[in-house]
Every structure is written in C-alpha cells, then in structure tokens.
C-alpha cells in the first residue's frame, strides 16, 4: 500500500501545533461535567495518594492509563486546567497521527491528510480533544492498533490494543470483534464457503497471529479488573454504576431506540450526514482514472475489518450504557470518515473542494447548536456551560460567602471543590437530584435549610425541537434514558419562595441565582458572628 515520506515526528508536531492554536481560548476553562465528577478527582487522588482506586469519588472501574498520564503532567508541570488540557491535546495529536497512519496505510497520503483534517474538525472529536476524559485516548490507541493489525504486525497490534483497553475498558471491543471475524473466516475457509477466502489464505503462523493477537489485550484488562475487585469488592464499578449502565439497559425496546441513536451518531450527527450523503451520491458515479489507471479503492479485506468494528461498536453501545453519549463512538466515526473520503477521491473529480466544504460545515457545528437535543460536550456548548457556571458561582461566593446553597450536581461539586477551578473557597451545599418539578417541590419543604438556590439547565433544550413536540418520544426518553425536563428559573423561584437576583443565558443554556426571603437577615447575622469571632469551622458540603 502507498506510503508518504512524511516523518511521523514532523506530522505529530504539525498536528499538535495546529490543534493547540485552535484550543487556546479553551485551555484555562474550569473542569466540565464528568471531568469534575470523576476523571479529575480520580487523577488527583492518584497524584496525592498514589492510589489507582479513587477515594474522593466513587470508583467506576475505568482503567487508570489516562488518569496516570494526567497525574504525571501535574507532577511535572503543576496542577492547573491549562496543564491538564495541554496533556490531553498531546493525546489528541497522537490519536490524529494514528488516523493519518491508518488512512495512509489503507489508501494514500492525500486521503490520509483529508481524513485527518476532517476528524480533527469534527465537533465531537474537537470538543473532546482538550477534555480530561478517556474515550478519545482509547480511540486513538485503537487506530494505531488497527494500522498495525492491517499490516500484519501482530505483536505491535496486541500492544496498541492492550493500551487502548487500559485507557478505557470498552476499547476491548475492537480486538474482540477482530478475533471473532478471524475465527469466522477460519471456519468458513475450511467449509463449503472456502472459495470466498481464496487468495486471502495465509501461512499457519499468519493465521495464528490473526486469531491470537486480538486476544492478548484481555490479559491486562482482566488483571486490572482483578485488582479492582481485590480493592473494592466490585468488578465493574460500584453497584449503582453497573445498574445504570448495564442492568437497566437490557430492554428490547430500549435497545432498538438506542440502536437508532447510535446509527445516527455514527453517520449523521452534527453535519456528519452531509459527508455520508455525499458519499452515497458519489457511489453512483463511475471511478475516475489517472491516465489509464483507475483510482484505487480501499482493499475489500480492510473495508470488511472497518465494517466489523463499526457494527460491533454500534450494537454493543446500543446494548449497554445508561447515557447514549456520542463520545463513546469516537473509535467509529474516523473509520467512517476514512471510508467516505476515499470514496469521494475515487469517484468525484473535485473531491478536495467537497471535503473542504464538509470540513467548513464541521467547524460551523462547533458553535451552531442543532435543532435536536445533544450533549454540550459534543461541541463548544460546553464552554458556554462552564462560563455560565463560573460567573454565577463567583457571584454567589462574593455576595453570599457563608450561605447554604441549594443546587444539583455538578454544581454541588463546583461549589464545594475549589480545585475544580470555579471557586476560591468551598461553600456549603444542600443538594437535590435535578431541577424537575418534583425535585423543586420537594426542596420547598425544607427551604429553612438553605439561604440561596443556584438553578441551571442540566441539558440543552432546542428552541424548536424536531422530536420533543411528540409526547410519546418524551415519555420514551423519560422511561429509558433518564430524561427530566428542567423547570424554568422563574417557576423554580416561585415554588421555592425566592427572589431571582442573577440570571444569564447562552444559546439555550442558562443559570440563575435566587435568594430566599430570609437570606439577607441570616447573612447579616452570620457576618456579625464572623466579625465578633463567634463562629465555628465551616460545615462540610454535601456531595
């Protein structure tokens, strides 16, 4: 297969430089959502206590490779969001180099460059590139593993797949899918369908490599789960985590709904449908020729490998996972992009212009929120969330420094853990589950326990939703995906008996601070106690 003379180190440096410049406005942001809830606390525990099992948050049994990488950067460069995000950008650059090497191996350099650019600019990949989470790292190591596997470098493939599984346990899906596929090939090759594999039969050591190499990553992953069990008594995380992500998802109707969502996330999500549509249209055209030579296609064996991995991820991620997050499919989307770009180059004369237009639409999706519900971590909506919370919480800290604040997660962690980057000191928190009507009404029954409420949107709600106008769809989301509609800020203030003193909104997300009627009196009393020295130590926040 064709290769370029580009040095991997030079390509890596160029990729890192480009994505670092694009992420400069994001590097100092406080930690967002699952970063604040799990990954940063777990990495901080590793840094401070040397423990692979987190103590300041409940363990989810995720392997520690990425957390160790972050802790190493903190050890060398200091604890700060800019250090964390720079460390993750190195991982993102290495992952994109993996996309480049994979695409170059299965196609050519022009396809590799175009596919790498499209992957880097795809909103989900771009947003995840600087976030302290594990899915992108697992995907990047998977691309390196696939590149080695396709080149018949079995030992190296086993190493990359093992590292991917130690970044996130679900990365084991790729080598297991390959092992199953090779086993099927071996069985079919011995039977009446052997003609299907004629020309692709290998020597015995090659067959052994194909079958055994994908199984090796099971060893380190099994050792990790064994260690986790010995320390916690649980194999796959705490019981609530297992219930939410596995036990509660095994329903046929939920599987079909989740499967539809996973297909959409793989082929249509955030302007990806334009690339998919262009590819389907291009397939109606005859292949182009360079001189007397027809432009090559990706080898059938490679296409089958890609489709096996894509199908495995889509089906498995529809079967498990309480939250149907697009980042779980990061190992899949770049494979779709490579196949699509190769098809466009093979059949479309002005394919570079088409790819450039699609890349521009990906960039537009960084800031343009779609007319359907999506996770803010899938584009720069997460920055809007962080800025909203940072402003509201600093307002709350400055105006009500000793107040008890009613809020929900992750606001509760942001207010009580200054090392997440939102506060200068911890505040005292009264926590509820969410801001649904039922939860806010229940909070009103113990309003004497808090002085201030910080209420915010826990999800993006499009102004003109495509599907939410149908009650049946809303009911299905509530039944199978934990959907709860946030109560508007004005309604929450009325139910809680408070007065709104702060409100800010950005592109469908909002945050409000409201003080209870007693807040001014109680704050005055507490200030007098502080000034007179008649005050004890702060109470622990409720987490």
Comma- or semicolon-separated keywords:
disordered C terminus; Rossmann fold; 543 residues; alpha/beta; five-stranded mixed β-sheet; 7% strand
Identify the overall geometry.
Answer: globular
Outline the low-pLDDT stretches.
192-203, 534-543
Task: Tell me the number of helical segments per DSSP (H or I, 4 or more residues long).
Answer: 23
User: What is the count of distinct domains?
Assistant: 2
Global Rg: 25 Å
Helical content stands at 55-70%
| Spatial separation of the terminal alpha carbons | 55 Å
Judged by helices, strands and strand pairing, the structural class is alpha/beta
Sheet with most strands: 5 strands, mixed
Strand content: 5-15%
State mean pLDDT (0 to 100 scale): 89
- Helix-strand pattern, N to C? HHHHHHHHHHHHHHEEHHHHEHEHEHHEEH
- What's the total number of strands? 7
Biggest sheet: strand arrangement: 4-3-5-7-6
What is this structure's SSE topology?
Blueprint: H1 8-23, H2 34-49, H3 65-77, H4 81-106, H5 109-121, H6 123-128, H7 135-150, H8 154-167, H9 173-190, H10 204-212, H11 218-232, H12 239-245, H13 252-267, H14 272-282, E1 289-290, E2 293-294, H15 300-319, H16 333-347, H17 351-367, H18 381-399, E3 404-408, H19 411-416, E4 428-432, H20 437-444, E5 452-456, H21 471-480, H22 489-496, E6 498-506, E7 509-516, H23 519-532
Parallel strand pairs: 3-4, 3-5
Antiparallel strand pairs: 1-2, 5-7, 6-7
Helix pairs in contact: 1-4, 2-3, 3-4, 4-5, 4-7, 5-16, 5-17, 7-8, 9-10, 9-15, 13-14, 13-15, 14-16, 14-17, 16-17
